[in-house]
DNA sequence: CGCAATATTGAAATAAGTCAAACCGTGTGG
DNA sequence: CCACACGGTTTGACTTATTTCAATATTGCG
């Protein structure tokens, strides 16, 4: 393999575009996520955008090799990270293909809660969510208008509150159940936090 | 990393399911594709189904290590394969999120043509396509009824013919243009076939 | 203060879904 | 050799989730 770029601070997203301008967000990145792997002779099919002030760490091929050699757990950790990243992506396919507007948005809210919890960036089922409704629409394959109405529906049902980029899940159990969120694909977890052997 | 399972003959697909029974196909696998990577302590989030009589090759951890050591190109090849597999998945997200029924199905037809060509399993823009309309619906997030009507539309426009599991793209240039298919994400290719250095 | 980007609301249009029936090829068994 | 059952395809009529268009708040911010 080759070098890696890791997001170390802030939020970002992976963007895919169609020649006629249609935009699809194919994943949100938070600290700890690998946003890109360098592979020789392969063109990138996506672009990255930061949502907030963010910083990145670049690990070169050699650095990575040395790390792997010195700490075998590094290689294993990368393998797990890769697997989870694929699982998240596959799950996004499931979302777009099978879930309706309510379920898509609710599922994203739940997923980000668990992922942020794992890195200590969520408390009490609430977290900073620096994503506009327009971007949320680009992520869920919906219209901004419909995203808006759906969020209002969630508010009316007392499931979430969202204002000033602060999201709070008011009834996680009910929301998770309604949108069929099962955190298993994010990794074997305990109370929302990864357990490393 | 760990062991690998490679499809060596036949077609298969990766299936995701929701607890209420909704099914989403998250990718078709053809010979040469890695259908699964063994990662310790990680539960699989998908299942695999064969569409035709198929065979698999299992490469154990040790075998793989030995291969990689003896032939450096193996490691690089795997990295490229991984990258392309992710790109295909991301593209499927783009499909489901932004393309309409016609574009989704047409895009899949184009993608499979190029991928099959690379392994010598397509000729003259035609190939064996062992996927029922029901499965095609599960892959595209559409209804079988709507898939049917869309294919009829394609037939009526003289773009494809499909009967007895044999698909022929009658006007590839026009179809690719209509559905905005750009093979770049499948790998730098020449005439549909991968060029390895 | 006033712009520019977001968020919200309403009404009308449409792509895709649902339900239900008919059709078709094909293999099987009487 | 016909009848029938089976999985898949096709068709029609009707419903609905989501989009579109367009206008009106609202908010952050230089």
If you had to describe this structure to a student in words, what would you say it looks like?
The structure is a homodimer of 197-residue chains. The first copy, chain A, has 197 residues and is α+β, with helices and mostly antiparallel strands. Chain A is 42% helix and 24% strand. The first copy, chain A, has 6 helices and 11 strands. Chain A has helices spanning 61-70, 72-98, 101-118, 133-140, 144-156, 172-178, and strands at 4-9, 12-17, 23-29, 34-37, 47-50, 55-59, 126-128, 160-163, 166-169, 189-190, 193-194. In chain A, strands 4-1-6 form a 3-stranded antiparallel β-sheet. A 3-stranded antiparallel β-sheet of chain A has the order 3-2-5. In chain A, strands 7-9-8 form a 3-stranded antiparallel β-sheet. In chain A, a hairpin with a 5-residue loop joins strand 2 and strand 3. In chain A, helix 4 (133-140) crosses helix 5 (144-156). The radius of gyration of chain A is 17 Å and the shape is globular. The two termini of chain A are 25 Å apart. In chain A, 32% of the residues are buried. The structure holds a DNA duplex (30 and 30 nucleotides).
What is this structure's SSE topology?
Two copies of one chain form a homodimer.
Chain A: E1 4-9, E2 12-17, E3 23-29, E4 34-37, E5 47-50, E6 55-59, H1 61-70, H2 72-98, H3 101-118, E7 126-128, H4 133-140, H5 144-156, E8 160-163, E9 166-169, H6 172-178, E10 189-190, E11 193-194
Antiparallel strand pairs in A: 1-4, 1-6, 2-3, 2-5, 7-9, 8-9, 10-11
Helix pairs in contact in A: 1-2, 3-5, 3-6, 4-5
Chain A binds a DNA duplex (30 and 30 nucleotides) through residues 100-101, 132-134, 142-146, 148-149, 152, 164.
């Amino acid at each position: 393999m080759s070098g890696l770029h890791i997001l170390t601070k802030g939020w970002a997203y992976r963007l895919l575009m169609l020649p006629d301008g249609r935009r699809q967000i194919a994943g949100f990145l938070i600290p700890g996520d690998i946003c890109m792997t360098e592979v020789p002779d392969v063109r990138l099919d996506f672009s990255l955008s930061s949502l907030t002030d963010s910083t990145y760490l670049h690990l070169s091929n050699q650095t990575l090799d040395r790390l792997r050699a010195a700490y075998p757990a590094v290689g294993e950790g990368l393998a797990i990270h890769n697997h989870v990243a694929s699982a998240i992506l596959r799950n996004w396919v499931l979302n777009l293909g099978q879930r309706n507007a309510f379920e898509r948005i609710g599922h994203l809210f739940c997923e980000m809660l668990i992922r942020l919890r794992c890195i200590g960036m969520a408390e009490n089922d609430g977290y900073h969510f620096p994503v506009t409704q327009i971007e949320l629409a680009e992520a869920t394959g919906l219209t901004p208008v419909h995203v808006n109405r759906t969020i209002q529906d969630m508010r009316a049902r007392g499931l979430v509150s969202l204002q000033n980029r602060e999201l709070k899940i008011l009834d996680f159990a009910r929301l998770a159940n309604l949108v069929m969120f099962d955190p298993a694909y994010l990794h074997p977890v305990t109370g929302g936090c990864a357990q490393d052997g």
